[in-house]
Design brief:
With about 280 residues, this protein is α+β, with helices and mostly antiparallel strands. Among the domains are: about 30 residues, no CATH class; about 80 residues, SH3 type barrels (Roll). The chain has ten helices and five strands, in the order ααααααααββαβαββ. The radius of gyration is 23 Å and the shape is globular. The two termini are about 20 Å apart.
Amino acid sequence: MPSPKETRQIYETGSQLMPAIHQERDWPYEVPHIQYESYIWPTHDVGGQAAAPQIFEEKEDEDWEKNVYITCEVLGFRGMWNAEERRRIYANDIGMTLYYGFPYNARWIWGAAKMLVDKKYIGLLELQEKIAEIRERLGVNATRDGHAKSNIGASAHVDIATHNGDPSQASSGQRPDYGPKPPWEPTGETLPGRFKVGDKVRVKDLPAIFYTRTQLYARNMTGTIAALTYPDLVPADEAWERYDQPQQQYYIVRFPQTELWAEYPFPNDTLQSEYPDMWLEPVK
């Protein structure tokens, strides 16, 4: 189980693995343990990572960001992806270059486009041709300097991409047939929760392989149950569409900040985060 010092080492080593600058090297026969942990550390688990100071800025969502959000929610409503699937495959597991290089909503719309191609709702050539058509309409094919300005989301109409390569559906104004909606609702039993408000718990240190919603910095850390939220599938089951698995109780756990970060200067500050039952163990 990583100590706070080892967690910091993993973050610092992982930050050096970002592909902006790298040195060529032969395939190693063996790697140190901290380097191994850093390699399998999921890209999206960025809490506590070493980084330059950031200025917090309050700003209104731009039109394109609102359109991205609505598009992704509609695709979910139509049964084309679920929440954890789209986080895991199409927003988190996209490699460090895109994850760190794209704005938040740009990752989502990139992932939505890739999902539509992956699942054969549209063809890649269809997508390329539609993007080229929109670029030409907005005048960005010729110059390519700066951002295109458009009210396309507010007033312009774009036909829905066709399904199975049938252009008659789009030209006739008919909604494409996306097939039956997958069973998003869990079918497994609901397990009783083991903890109550006020209980001391420790976050387990399970391997962070492929996908996780449990932060590295909280693993093996002790906190207090602050609230019970709801029963649901754990992310590792929902992300792989295992709807027959049991639902588990989720909890809000409160941690002292000074226990999470050795250098934290304010003794009374706390941090709260949410975990399913299976990620927690009682502290006697």
